Amino acid sequence: MIQRSYYLHQIHDAFEQHSVCAILGPRQCGKTTLAKFYVQELKEVHIFDLENPQDLAMLESPSLTLPPLNGTIVIDEIQRRPDLFPYLRFLVDNSDKKFLILGSASQDLIQQSSETLAGRIAYIELPPFLLNEVNDMHKHWVLGGFPKSFLAPSYSQSEKWRINYIQNFLERDLSMMGIQTVPSNMRRLWSMLAHYHGQIANVSELSRSLDMTDKTIKRYMDILESCFMIRQLKPWFENISKRQVKRPKLYIRDSGILHTLLGVSDNAILTHPKCGASWEGYALENLVHSYDNDLYEFYFWATEKGAELDLLVTKGSQRIGYEFKYSEAPKITKSMNIAMKDLKLDHLSIITPGEKSYTLGNNINVTSLKEAINRSFRADHET
């Protein structure tokens, strides 16, 4: 069992300053397991799982159930009862109770809680397993980071789990979160988005292909993003004369889910046309999570004439560029030189799956993904 020590420390630190800590992440990424690890050494704990009908019924009258309880109160799948937030505020302001709340839908949950719990709540995004938590990069890339996928006894069982996960998400989980969709249409869109992975999704093109309105396409994409299934990476605009791309770049956040949506089994991704794009999304997702997301912002940059940068990381005036190449010996390209000059990058790293890191040119180097993650993690998470 992977205890995820870094996130346990994050919960501890959050409760040092706040009475409420929200762990947000996709369904079955390990939120409940993490919460159980955290509370196992606490003296008094009360756990409510809102998928359990009995627990849900107990919180139908929170003013009767919660006041007598002391210590830490865990509420799992909080998005099923957003009406609890105002009462949690009352309890926080009039007692020393601590609340650890777990949720699977980010945007709605944050909006609902921030309005009533402003200044009282800290947020932690929990992704599926990351590369720095496991010891097999290739397996992690192929199977993805969802615990039951990565820890499955075999590749075939991992694949079966992911197929069922996608089906359950569409047919059960979304409706349980109060999100109304047409499951068959959402599945068609999600599969189509997998083919746009690492590219700019053309909403009008998707609308024509799927016979759905632009409005529905955008709404469904926002739902997938709010449930941590896709990432829409924002474009960066620089004050230069060149015409720049102004639409977001799309990624399926978990590589294992991506491969299932593409119909790719086991190691077949290595010969698939989306191999390079899959590696790019996998490396980007792991690298983004190695930074302190409260301090840094993340973009991509591209011009209409083809110059581009896969990832731009900014903090104040600091600008770090990343290119992701599934290659053992990448070269400096014209596009990289343009990005260095136009964006005034402090540094540009070309991230590869290899083990070697070396300098290619002035402030441009080749870096293994593991080394890049370790560098950013050490810089921003260790004291």
From TrEMBL:
Pfam families given in the database record: AAA_14, DUF4143
InterPro entries (UniProt xref): AAA_14, DUF4143, P-loop_NTPase
Residues covered by the DUF4143 domain: 171-327
Residue stretches making up the AAA domain: 18-134
Protein name: AAA+ ATPase domain-containing protein
